[in-house]
Each structure stands twice: as structure tokens, then as C-alpha cells.
Amino acid sequence: MVAGSALVTRRISLTDLDNLPDPDDLAREMIKNMAAGLERFRAVRNSLER
Q1: How far is residue 8 CA from its own chain's centroid?
Q2: Which residues of 7-45 are buried (b: 16+ CB within 10 A; e: fewer)?
Q3: Which residues 6+ apart lie within 8 Å of 21 measured at CB?
Q4: Contact partners, residue 10, CB within 8 Å, separation at least 6
Q5: How far apart are CA 35 and CA 46, in angstroms?
Q6: Measured between alpha carbons, how far is 44 from 10 in angstroms, rounded to an integer?
Q7: CA within 20 to 30 Å of 24's CA: 17, 30, 31, 39, which one?
Q8: Is the overall model pTM greater than 0.70, yes or no?
Q9: Over the stretch 1-24, which tens digit does the pLDDT of each residue have?
């Protein structure tokens, strides 16, 4: 089961607090991902308006 495996991997990685990325790096990555998602949403919306 892939979803279960991903969940287990995430739990294991969160237990290793010494190797977490810098909070500012995490925030930048989240913003970048959200912007990319918004661009994809806009592209879909624009294709539906035509």
C-alpha cells in the first residue's frame, strides 16, 4: 500500500528533529509549491473559459 508507506516514512522522518530543514527554507518551498499549483489552476480555468 503506497499511501501507508508514505505515512510511515513521514512519521519516521519527523522523529529525527536534528535533520529538519530550516523553517525559512520550508516556508519558501511551500510558497513555491502553492504558486505553482495556482498557476496550474489558472491554466485549467483559462482552458475551460475558451
Answers
A1: 17
A2: eeeeeeeeeeeeeeeeeeeeeeeeeeeeeeeeeeeeeee
A3: 29
A4: none
A5: 16
A6: 31
A7: 39
A8: no
A9: 444 444 444 555 656 777 888 899
